[in-house]
Design goal:
By secondary structure, the chain is an alpha+beta fold. It contains 5 helices and 3 strands, in the order ααβααββα. A 3-stranded antiparallel beta sheet has the order 1-3-2. α2 crosses α3 and α2 crosses α5. The two termini are about 20 Å apart.
Length: about 120
């Protein structure tokens, strides 16, 4: 895999706490359903029913994943009547999800042809 130099590289050498928190974040993103949910939220706020359709998973599983993301501070919630509306917590997360998918896209399109 070839990665280009980062344009917005971290301004200083991260410490142990930054590495630990970053590893936790990446572990949460390492689940396909959670990544799909976060990607769906890059388009804007959404409720559980819409997110369930977006990731093609069972509603209880989606609710559990959303709870983990909320507890980790990656998504926020607000009530709209009886519905709970989810949103990404900040733009950094949107860029991280987009970059992860861009790397995946490059890896898929840069594959050498199979014999």
């Amino acid at each position: 895999m070839h990665l280009s130099p980062a344009h917005d590289a971290h301004p200083r050498t991260p410490g142990e706490e930054q590495f630990a928190l970053a590893a936790e974040l990446l572990a949460l993103l390492g689940d396909r359903t959670r990544l799909t949910l976060l990607h769906a939220l890059t388009s804007g706020e959404s409720d559980v029913s819409t997110l369930t359709e977006a990731c093609d998973a069972a509603r209880p599983a989606v609710s559990q994943h959303l709870a983990r993301l909320r507890l980790a501070g990656l998504v926020t919630t607000r009530k709209e009547g009886r519905r709970v509306i989810y949103a990404l917590s900040d733009g950094h997360l949107r860029r991280l999800v987009d970059e992860a998918l861009n790397v995946a896209d490059h890896r898929l399109t840069d594959r050498p042809p199979h014999d």
